[in-house]
Amino acid sequence: MNLRGIVAVSGRPGLFKLVGQNKAGYVLEGLDAQKVKIVANISNTKLASLEDITIYGEDEDLKLIDVLANLAAVKGDVPDAKADAAVLKKLFLEVAPSHDQEKVYASDMKKIVTWYHLLKDLPLFTEEAPGAEVAADGGKVEEKTEKKVKATPKPSNAKAPSKTAQPAKKASMTSKKGV
């Protein structure tokens, strides 16, 4: 699942794709059918990348990406976000069994289910995250952080620096007045 560049904006419903950045803020495009473009002010708008969001767990926090993948693997239909809180709690016991039931509210569950329904039809939901390798048995291998640097040849019209060239002498910053 590739959620790179998908963000939630504080105070706005839905999810947005980060398109770019300018002096005024971040340029975002809505993932809904309207494809609204907005500029989120850098100084007073909070953006949360879906890759970085975690859910409270009993032992350790759960990554949102893992919970969304578990929602995709649910047998049967995932209920609508407007479903009863008891139905959502039962669903979350299935997809995130180690979530902290006291800290994860029904409103959080509704938001995650809403995000799932927005993302499930997009191609990025089924593609692999960039930098992730897949093992031969189909399991995910840890992401590689090592980057190979490829040497690029110099253009033929570039002039090589002369070995005999001397650096220019720096001018003195102090002025001499009559003594």
Automatic annotation (TrEMBL):
Name of a matching Pfam family: DUF5606
Cross-referenced InterPro entries: BVU_3817-like_C_sf (IPR049281), BVU_3817_N_sf (IPR049282), DUF5606 (IPR041218), DUF6852 (IPR049280)
Annotated ranges, domain DUF5606: 3-50
DUF6852 domain span: 53-119
Feature: compositional bias, Basic and acidic residues: 139-149
Annotated stretches, region: Disordered: 133-179
Protein name (database record): Uncharacterized protein
Organism whose genome encodes this protein: Pedobacter hartonius
Source organism phylogeny: Bacteria, Pseudomonadati, Bacteroidota, Sphingobacteriia, Sphingobacteriales
